[in-house]
Each structure stands twice: as structure tokens, then as C-alpha cells.
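task queued by scheduler; priority normal; single chain, no ligands, no partner chains; default sampling; output format set to C-alpha cells
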Amino acid sequence: MSRIPRDLENLKAGFNAEAAAAARFRAYSARARRDALPHLADHWLELARQKDQIAILQLEAAGQVRGGETDLEAAIAEERYENEVLYPKLQAGSGAEAAAIFGQVLAAQGQHQARLDALRGAIVASQGDVPATLRAEPEPTRQR
């Protein structure tokens, strides 16, 4: 039996499904654009935006969107888990082709982590909103 209430578990499952579908639809849109099908690409993007809204509704209902520094700290923790545990494990357990993709993902993840860290610094230094542009220094990536 789960330790979290069933409604919360269901809202998180719904969020995960909608967020994954939205990402998939954006990928379909990118492919349609490469295939010179701009109208189809636009439809895929609109469907992705609609899926995003449904995902947001469920995430907010689950109490997972709290605002400001609280959301940032949650994002930093999630990003660190992805960078330090999830993707290295996936990379290590994959064949050469998939491992190379996970290497690319880890490089991008380092940039995300640096931007989140820069946002944390900006929030701490500000008494309101953060600057429109930030200088993010990526952490050195470890060779895998």
C-alpha cells in the first residue's frame, strides 16, 4: 500500500502522463517541421500546450507548485538526482548508442543545473523578481 493518499498518487500519475504526452507532441512537431509540414507542426505544438495546461492543473492540485524559492529548491533537488544518480545509472546500463545519448543528456543537464544555481543566487540576492538575464557557470562535467 502506498504511503501517500490515493488522490495525490492519482494526480501525480495524471501529471506524469500529460507531461510525457506534451513532450512527445513537441517532438512530433519538430519532426513535422523537419519534414516541411509546418501546419502539422503547429497543430502538434498547440496540442502540446493544451497537454501542458492539463498537467499544470494536476500538479497544482497535488500541491506541488508552491512558488518562488520553494519551487526552485525542489527543482534543484530533482536536477541533482537526475545528474548524479538517474542518468549516470542509465548511461552505465546502456549499450554504446544509448550511452552516447545519455552523455549528451548529462551535458545539457549540467547547463540546467548551472542555471538553477544562478537562479537560486539571484533569488537570495533580490527582494522580488530575478533579473531577466543571468550568467550561469556550468559545473565541470565528470567523465563517465
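post-processing summary
- Residues 91 and 99 are 5 Å apart (CA to CA).
- DSSP finds four helices and no strands in the chain.
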